[in-house]
Specification:
heterodimer, A: alpha/beta, Urease, subunit C, domain 1, Diaminopimelate Epimerase, Chain A, domain 1, TIM Barrel, 3 domains, six-stranded mixed beta sheet, 24 strands, 23% strand, B: Rossmann fold, Hypothetical Protein Yjia, Chain: A,domain 2, 14 strands, globular, binds zinc ion
Chain lengths: 546, 307
Amino acid sequence: MSEITVYTARKIRTMNPSMPEATAVAVRDGRIVEAGSLETLKPWLDAYPHKVDTRFEKHVLMPGFIDPHLHPSLGAILLPCHFITAMTWHLPDRVSPPVTSHEDYVARLREIETSMADPDELLLTWGYHKIWHGIVDRTVLNDISATRPIIVWQRSFHEVIANDAAIDWMKLDRAELERHPQIDLASGRFFETGLAVATKSMNPYLFAPERFGKGLELVKKAIHFGGHTTIGELAYPLINDELEWDILANTIEQDDVPFRMRLVPRGAGPGETDKAVERVNGFQSRKTHRLSFGNGVKLFSDGGFFAELMQMQPPGFIDGHHGEWMTAPERLEALARAFWNEGKQIHVHCTGDMGLELALAILEKLQFERPRFNHRFTIEHFGASTPEQARRIKDLGAIVSANVYYLHELGEAYWRQSIGYERASQMARLGTLESLGVTTALHSDFTMAPALPLNSAWVAVNRLSESGTVLAPEERISLDSAMRAITIDAAYMLGMEDEIGSIRAGKMADFTVLEADPWETAPEDLKDIPIWGTVFEGEPFPLGER
Amino acid sequence: MRIPITLLTGYLGAGKTTIINALLAQNPDRRMAVLVNDFGAVNIDASLIASRDGDTVRLTNGCVCCSIEDDLGTALDALAKSPHPPEHVLLEASGVADPQRIARHAGHWPGFELDAIVTAADCETVRERAADKFVGHLVESQIRAADIIALTKSDLVAPGDAESTTRWLHSLNDDALVTDAPHGRVELALLLGPRPGRPSPPAMPDQPHDAFRTMHWVPQHPVDTEKLSRLLSEMPRAVHRVKGFFVDARTGQMTLLQQVGRRFRFSAAPKTAAPGLVLIASGPDMDLARYHLAFESCQSTVPSERV
Ligand SMILES: [Zn+2]
C-alpha cells in the first residue's frame, strides 16, 4: 500500500448530493480514501503515512469529466486537417479563430498555402460553411494555387471542393467525373454520392498510418484538453476490430494517457441475431487497464442529424425530403429483443422524432414481453422529440444521452431551412427531461461537436444559438443538472457510476481541476472557465503549455 | 465499356434473396458478379461452388458472389480490378436503402453504369408494408423507383389477389413492368437484359414467362438516332427491354443502345461489335412484327460515307 496523498483545494464540488462540497480529498493507489476537510480526514491521516499536496489551493476540483459518446477514430482523421471555422474551435495544439466572411476565408487559406514548405503536399482544410464563407469553388481555389492540390472539406463532411491540381491528384478519369450527377467539375464540387468518388481517392491519404497515428495523438490531447478522464466509444469498431484494437491498445494504454475508455460494441452485423449476441458477448472479457467493454450494446434507428437524414414524424421537412433508417425497423426490433433478453444495456442512436418513436415503440413491446428494472435503455443524441415522447421515456424507464450542441450549431439553420421554428427551437428537449426526472447525460459525439464538456453544459444551460438567440428558454436546464450530465449521470450511462463520476470514498481518484467555480460563474461564461488539467487515478496531469 | 449494374431493391422479406438464389441456380448466360448484403442468407448449391475465399464465392459457371461488407465503392473497385471482371453486376440494395440514391451511387461509380432498378415486392405483405407508419414511405419509394417489379409469393395468395396487387403497384408506378417471380424466378433476359449482339437461346418450354417474346433485328444500314429516340420514347409498356449495337448514321460510330421500360441511353461501343438489337416484350406476335417495321424505318436513307 502506498502513502496517502491529500489534495487540498479552494473548493471540491463532489457531485455527491449527500456532501456536495469539500476542501480536501485523500487519495491512495489511484482511489479516493475519503473526501471532506483536513479535520474530517483526521482518523485516516492519523492511521497512515501521508503527505498534503497544496498545489490546488487556488483551484476548484470536480469529478473527472466524462463524455459518454465520442469517436476517437473519426477525430484522428479530422484533427490533422487545417481548420478554418466560422466558430472558435479550441484545440489542444491551436485555436481556430472565427472566420466569418468570404474575404477572410480566402485570405486565411492563402496564408496556410504559403506557409506550407512542400509545394506538392495536399492542403486539406475543414470547416467551410457557405452561410459564412460564401462561394468557394474551383476557380477561387485555383487562384490560391494552380499547382498545389487543395481540397476544402465542408463543415458537416457532406461535400468537398477541389481545385484542378486536386482533381488531378485524385487520379480519376475526368470523363467519369463529368457524367456524375453529383459531381460538378466546373465548380469543383463533389457531394452526396459524388463525395464517395472523391473520398475513394482521399482515403489512402486520410488513413495513412503516419497521419492516422498523428491524428490519434491529437485526439488524446483533445480529450485531456477538454478535462475528460473517461470517455465512451459508442460504436466499436469503426471498421476493423483487429486493426483498431491494436492501435487503441498501443496508443491509449500508455502511462502518459490520463483517461480511460469504455467501449460499446455495435449490435448489428451479418447473420442472425443469436450470432450478433454471441459476437457482442465475445468482447466482454477483453480488458486492459484503460480499455474495457461493459454490458452495453449500440444499435441505430434513423439517419444522421447533421446530414438531415433523421426520420421526422409529420409534417416532416419543409422541402419534403425524407430521412432514412440506419437499420430496418423489424431488424432493429429483433436485435433489441435479443439483447434485451440477454440483459444488456441497449443504446439506440435516435435523431428525429420518428426515429425516437420507433425506439420507444420497441421498448414498450419489450417491457410488455419481459419487464426489466434498471435496464438503462439509452436514447443517444435526442435531436427532435415531442413532449409526449419525453414522458414515455420516463414511463418506460429509459435514459438519455444528448448531443445538445445540435441546438447551438443547427438550431437556427434548421429553423429557417429544414423543419421550422417550433420543432427546431425545441431540439434537445432537456428542460422537460429534467422536470420529469429522467437521467440525462451530455455528449459531443466528437467530431460532431467539440469535445469540451463545459461547452456542452454551457449550451444546455443557456440554449444560445450560433447568432446568440435563446432557443426555447423553457428547455434550459439548471447548472446542477448540466454538471451532473458531464459527471455522475454520464457515468451512469456507461454503467460505471460505482467507480467514477463523483468524489466519494472508494471511487477512482479522477478530478478535473478548474480555475473557477462553475457555481460562482455567470451561466453565459461557463464554457470559458479555464481548465488547469486533470488528476487521473491520483496522478496530476497539467495541460501545460499550448 | 462500363459494366452494367442491375440494382435489386425491396424491403426486408420482399424476396430479394430468393431471386438471387434462383438466379445463381439457373446458370446465367454471362459472367456475373452478385453483390449481397448478408452472405449468410444466400444459398448456393454446393455442386456449383468452385472455390470459397472469405466473403467471395466463385461458381463453376464463372459467376462470383460476394458480400458488400462496408463500402460499395470498394466492392465495385475490387470487381473491376479482378483478372476476369464481370460482364454484369447484380447489386442487392439493403432493405432500407433509398433506391434512387443507391442507383446514383452505383450507376455513376467510375467504370460502372446503371442497367435497371428491379424491385422485389411480396404479394402477401407489400400493401400492408406500404401503409406502415415507419417504413411506408420507403416501401413506396422502392416501388416508384422500379423499372421492373418482381412479384414474389404470388403463388401463395388467393386467386385475384395478385391481379389486384398488380393494379395497385401500377397505380404507384405506371411505367414499371410487373412480373411474377414464382420461387424467385425472373427470366434472365428480363432481369439483366438480353445479351447484345448475340441471339438468346429460344425460350425453354418450362420457362414461367411464356408470355414474353423476343425479337431480333439486325440493321442493314446506319441508324438515325433522332428517329430511333423518338421511336423508343413512344414504345408501348409491353416493350420491356431493348438492347444492342448499331452504327450511328451521323457519326459513323458503333453505338450501344440500352432501354429498360421508358428509360434508354446510347453509349459508345467498340468498333468490332456486330450490329444487332434484341427486344423483349409481352403481347401477341403480331406486335413484334410491327416493332420490326418501326425499327426498319429508323435506318438512315443516306448511307454514311464512313461505313
Ligand atoms: Zn456517434
